[in-house]
Amino acid sequence: MSKTHLGHTARKRFGQNFLHDDYVIGKIVAAINPQNEQNLVEIGPGLGALTDPVCEEVDALTVVELDRDLAKRLRHHPFNGDKLTVIEQDAMTFDFTSLLKSMPYEGKKLRVFGNLPYNISTPLMFHLFDHADSIADMHFMLQKEVVNRLAAGPGTKNYGRLSVMTQYYCHVIPVLNVPPGAFKPPPKVDSAVVKLVPHATPPVEVNSLNTLERVCAQAFNQRRKTIRNSLKDCLTEAQISELGIDPTCRAEVLSLKDFATLANAVTALEQSDNQQG
Fold it and tell me: Keywords of this protein's UniProt record, alphabetized (predicted)?
């Protein structure tokens, strides 16, 4: 199969796979449910598979596109050019909080959606989590395996660091599965759409997000180890027990609340060490 689609060659370095199945596109747009007077932002619009049907529903859409040829094509779109604000930039470094200040509808948070390049989907989501206060909701097409990990609960094989950190920031709602044949060129994996809704207030209190990240990374880095072993350089077995957590359990059975408890204990210890030092 030719990699050229509508006169544009899919670029491997941008992780481009273009969505073309009208039934699937209709289901995704229905899930997003775009309305007028919403601050809608699409990441990586590509050839407009989602852009065009969303523009049929609304008067204004902002798109963030890194590929210069595609950005130019969107600006000169015969039907939707006047509805689109095209930002030619890398979404990975883009300041979404500043974008909100320039959006047309004051007092309304961003509604973000996109068919994300799979090679950058996880770091891009975490970049967006940094701007979660500015975002009402997000709808993303991702690898199905990633969606399963985002939504997984403790005690399941898909549960890991990505589950814990995502669920700290957002409510995770799987929306629909998408087969490889819905894309050109077809990816080698199944895809799925997920809805992420940032929490108005975090579900647990965390004193240092960096420490939560670090504790999760250490605990899940060696999944087969007990947390007594994986966290031994920051907490003793007795200290873990004092928190009401079994030091002989593995990371995959601990809840977000447990990880917050562990991280806050590490933060408190480090702060007291710094004061003594």
Answer: Cytoplasm, Methyltransferase, RNA-binding, rRNA processing, S-adenosyl-L-methionine, Transferase
pLDDT the model gives residue 16: 54
Scanning the structure block, which residue is given the tokens 């670090």? Answer: 214
For 182-212, what is each residue's pLDDT tens digit?
988 888 889 999 999 999 999 999 999 999 9
- Which pair of structure tokens corresponds to residue 108? 């309304």
Listed as ranges, residues in the chain with pLDDT below 70 are 1-16, 277
Q: What domains are defined for the chain?
A: 2-196 (3.40.50.150), 207-273 (1.10.8.100)
Q: Residue 272: which residues within 8 A CB-CB, separation 6 or more?
A: none
CB contact set of 215 (below 8 Å; sequence gap of 6+): 231, 234, 259, 262, 263, 266
Known binding residues are: 17, 19, 44, 65, 90, 115
Q: What are phi and psi of 46, to 5 degrees?
A: 60, -125
Token pair listed for 207? 């004193």
Could you list the residues known to form a binding site for S-adenosyl-L-methionine, using ranges.
17, 19, 44, 65, 90, 115
